[in-house]
Amino acid sequence: MEMELLAEYPHAHMDRRPRKRARLGWDVPEAPKAQVGMFCGQEVGDVTSFVSSGAPSDLTCSSLYAKEVARNASPPWREDDKDGHYMFALGENLTSRYKIHSKMGEGTFGQVLECWDRERREMVAIKIVRGIKKYREAAMIEIDMLQQLGKHDKNGTRCVQIRNWFDYRNHICIVFEKLGPSLYDFLRKNNYRPFPIDLVRELGRQLLECVAFMHDLRLIHTDLKPENVLLVSSEYIKVPDYKVSSRSPKDGSYSKRLPKSSAIKVIDFGSTTYDHQDHTYIVSTRHYRAPEVILGLGWSYPCDIWSVGCILVELCSVCNHHLHLFWVALG
């Protein structure tokens, strides 16, 4: 009798309401320090990614590519946009720990969202990488570099600090401390007015210290540019600007913005490489590319120094806006 009932039970009338899903790895409270370094993994295509279950501040696991890891189920599937970007809504959760507050920016790699970290009770910046193989691989390289830099940059004064990372709906998500705008964004919002030479000198000193720090670790950034240098604070002051005759903004303002603090940090280590790796391919954004790279002669540490020089010229040039448009026009 029971067999007949089962055979006649119509699939069309099955209750398809979603059941309460099992507790997943990213919902589990943070493991005690004794368990730091454990990972749960999920293989997507040819890329093996891992979700750290350790404390956000303890990111010194010896290998990101551990082979023998426990497998875990995927969260509910969600369609990406046509370019592989994560589709989100303000106010929703990015795992149970982070709540999306606003969108901070977007680039070739993916998007950066400002999120509230419920655990640490602070705002953070989360880089959500596009769900495409090459960008996922670059993100794993960046995580490795960030962890290496974090081991040696104890005070966290040179490079952006990684807080955590996880793999969510086929997107590598990297959690950073929240910083201010990039030097490029500050210039753009300031109508491309140049920085005072004293400020440029201080920014240059910090940039060179950061580059020297990386080079001492035998690392080459390869993509230094104003977009990848962030002010630590977003606060600014307004000062009179007496050189606005032809460059006066539409509102007729005769003042310009200056950052309250000159402290900066370098970001974006997805293209960073060790000095012993292949150095024959093209690196650096076109505007900040060293001659030896353009000529295909091979490159090394000096390509970073050339990029720093280009940045400093752009920051103090009265026509940096025209320079930027010129490079854009060249394509």
Can you give me a brief rundown of this structure?
The chain is α+β, with helices and mostly antiparallel strands and 331 residues long.
Question: How would you portray this structure in words?
Answer:
This protein has helices at residues 2-8, 133-152, 183-189, 197-216, 291-294, 302-316, 320-330, and strands spanning 39-44, 47-52, 70-71, 93-94, 98-106, 110-117, 122-129, 162-168, 171-177, 219-220, 229-231, 236-240, 255-259, 264-266, 273-274. It is an alpha+beta fold. The protein has 2 domains: 37-177, 2-Layer Sandwich (Phosphorylase Kinase, domain 1); 183-330, Transferase(Phosphotransferase) domain 1 (Transferase(Phosphotransferase), domain 1). A 6-stranded antiparallel β-sheet has the order 4-5-6-7-9-8, covered by helices on one side. Strands 2-1-3 form a 3-stranded mixed β-sheet. Strands 10-15 form a two-stranded antiparallel sheet. A hairpin with a 3-residue loop joins strand 5 (98-106) and strand 6.
Task: Identify the notable features of this structure and list them briefly.
alpha+beta, three-stranded mixed β-sheet, 331 residues, 7 helices, Phosphorylase Kinase, domain 1, Transferase(Phosphotransferase), domain 1, six-stranded antiparallel β-sheet, disordered N terminus
Helicity range = 25-40%
Shape label:
globular
Major sheet characteristics: 6 strands, antiparallel
What count of domains describes the coordinates?
Answer: 2
- What are the segments in which pLDDT stays under 50 over at least 5 consecutive residues? 1-74
Instruction: List the secondary-structure elements in sequence, H or E.
Output: HEEEEEEEHEEHHEEEEEEHHH
Strand content: 15-25%
* Mean pLDDT metric: 78
* Number of helical segments with 4 or more residues: 7
CATH superfamily of the largest domain: Transferase(Phosphotransferase) domain 1
Here the CATH topology of the largest domain equals Transferase(Phosphotransferase), domain 1
Strand order of the largest sheet: 4-5-6-7-9-8
Number of strands: 15
CATH architecture level-2 label of the largest domain: Orthogonal Bundle
